[in-house]
Task: structure prediction
Amino acid sequence: MVIAYTKQEVKTWRSEHHNAVIGFVPTMGALHKGHLALIEEAQKVSDLVVVSIFVNPLQFNNPSDFEKYPQTLAADIQLLKAAGVELLFAPNAAEMYGSTATLTLDFGSLNQVMEGPNRPGHFSGVGLVVGKLFNIVQPAKAFFGLKDLQQVRVIERMVADLDMPLSIIPCPTIRESNGLALSSRNTRLTEIQRNEAGIIYQVLSDTASKIKKGTSISEALLMANSVLERNQGLITNTEYLQVVNAHSLQPIKYVEEAVEIAICIACFIGEVRLIDNLIFKV
Ligand code: AMP
Result:
């Protein structure tokens, strides 16, 4: 595996492989099986796979979340080599941004729900860094996890609105056996918290199955919120629990047949903020 720390190194590598179909998996490192699943999907449909590891300061609205974000580059490199990735791009912030970037991106209604109001500036930072990475790596396809559903929709919007010449491939969420969605932030949970955090997925699945069986969305959410309240010892705060259209991400009150619905949550276990969602149809 080639490791590039600069844009120029990626450019040189890319020009040596200008005819290859490049599959690209952008990450913030602290790699786990969720990332590896994206790499496997990329390998199925690309000639060569590029992974980036960059903890993007611009997308962190909370400085302590940024400082505490796990960084495990040496272990990540071993995982990527074993996975058969061709190129790792691991720039530092100075290489990525040079002087401070001032461009901001407004994703309109996509930014007015869920993560948007709770993490001001987050999606502007995500859009900026992903746009830069697309221009540097020039992939034919880029792979994103549906665990970050709102991020997928934001990137799809950016690619469509700017006519970026690549396809976005959303990939399913990989979970622990108790249902907890894999996340780099899970390493900040204690073992007990990790074991008990399966409750988040349970709440999402129970709510989805109630809605499928005909319970109204408002009633199903009331029941879900009361389960979360009963578990306040573990889930110290729920920022949002919402049922939305899985494409527009706007909250819905009533279900329509064959329309994809997502039930989305952001909550804290101790100091660790986790997000998850479940996409379903009735
Ligand atoms: P991150 O390193 O957290 O920025 O994630 C990099 C990519 O991996 C994003 O597209 C995430 O949506 C995706 N990802 C993170 N966790 C999972 C998971 N449990 N299952 C599938 N994809 C994931």
Summary: The chain has a mean pLDDT of 97. Residues 27-28, 34-35, 37-38, 144-145, 147-148, 171, 173-174, 181-184 surround adenosine monophosphate (CB under 6 Å). The CA atoms of residues 209 and 215 lie 9 Å apart. Strands lie at 2-4, 22-27, 48-53, 87-89, 141-145, 167-171, 235-245, 261-269, 272-280.
